[in-house]
Amino acid sequence: MVTQRRAGNAPLRVYLVGAHATGKTTLARWIRDRYHLPMIAEVARGVLAEMEENLDSLRTDIALVNRYQTEVFERQIAAEHQVEGPFVSDRAFCNLAYAAHHSTALARLFRDSRFADYMQWVRQGVVFFLRPHRELVVADGVRAGLEWEEVVRIDGMVKLLLEMFDVPYVPVQSLSMQERVRLVERVLDLAQQPEYGTCAPAEPAAPTLREN
Description:
Rossmann fold; about 10% strand; two-stranded antiparallel sheet; alpha/beta; 5-stranded parallel beta sheet; disordered N terminus; about 210 residues
């Protein structure tokens, strides 16, 4: 069980980021079971169901997709804020990569003070960046753009966000589940060492859902 804390007595948070069809959910579930962590599931599916909309609507109604992407972003922050202690999250800011390609809401979200707070919050976690493989690109019934080229575009946008906001990350390149779990085990074992994070910046407060 992961009980150790990072610098500033902050709980260890684990994020899986990347495009769709990269195996994030499978690996997040393994981390949940291996380390007995609460898991924050992908929020996008729940938001889509609550809106009682479908992918075709999101492709054709720009106001609707703006509302959807904004709600997913806010729901992700809220879900993390509700967990006290360590967790593994199946996604982080990933929906903003989709917002860049399918909505006109990204500029407003970037100006939202919660965005900078959240990226700083994620920086204090352990971030695994899962890279795409053609073999994993299968229809999931949730996201538009199941073509390989779309997956590659989203992957590039996620990487841009990671680099732009100086988020330390561990790239997960291998398709082999065995190699993936070996990498995760090694990184998380090191992350739990007492000396880990002793030079890290002070832990930011959890981002809150305040009015814009």
